[in-house]
Here is the input.
Amino acid sequence: MTFKERQPRDKGVITENRLLELHLYPGNQCNRDCSFCTVFGSPKGWYREYTAEHLDAVLQTVRLDDQGAIKFYGGEPTLDHENVIWAIAYLRQHQYQGAIVIYSNGIQSERLLQILESDPLGKTTASLNYSIATGDGAPPMPQKALEQLEAYEQNHPQSIAIGHPDVVDSGRGIDPFTGEASRPKANSRCPHCYPVLTTEGKFHACPFAIENQALHFQLGSTNSDTSEVLQNFQEFFRWLDTVHEPYASTHNLPACTVCWKHLDQLPMPSYASHLRSDQGN
Here is the structure.
């Protein structure tokens, strides 16, 4: 296949009170209804568009130089590609110089390419869902769309990557998965992803568990001080390493299984006390 897997960067990096990366999430509305979807994506899913208020919080949280990375994901970003194009323009107009990644199933290929082409810095790339791009475990994208995206990648190398093949036990889970049995399953160690800012104004600790509303994942809101959100993010990583992973290893459970089925067995991370109080109301 033309597309290559994107190599991950260092996890949990915070410099000058800013994150190296941040995920943006507008909801789980999608033009597919995959049985394995980690965010419960479907045509009936919820959606709230990007706004200046939301993006201003992004600009206060992530590195603005060329080391920063902002990742648009959720249900399917191309369903409202005009809003995504506007959001990219807004970020660029407000001095964001870093990379932008669009996580897409690629079905609406023309819209996806419009998004990539809209970036005045030419630093917006796409990452395709592995199952839909390959047809392994999901109906493949239309052949015309695949050919269009492959042609674009051949003419613009490293513009379109393919997502990881790992099957993650999050969201709807892996039990109904019908793809190749050889696909790797997640182990007891959490991948330690960067956090998410939803268009509802909430900072969430995990992009895979974004629809899980447990207090363990709630880092704050756009009304919170940025330094406290980042402090909570660092505490979440400490909790993963000292509480979550030992539990997963002892019980021989995948990391995501612990988060979806066993969080009531684990204490809360030691977040800033006023945030814990706000979230408990």
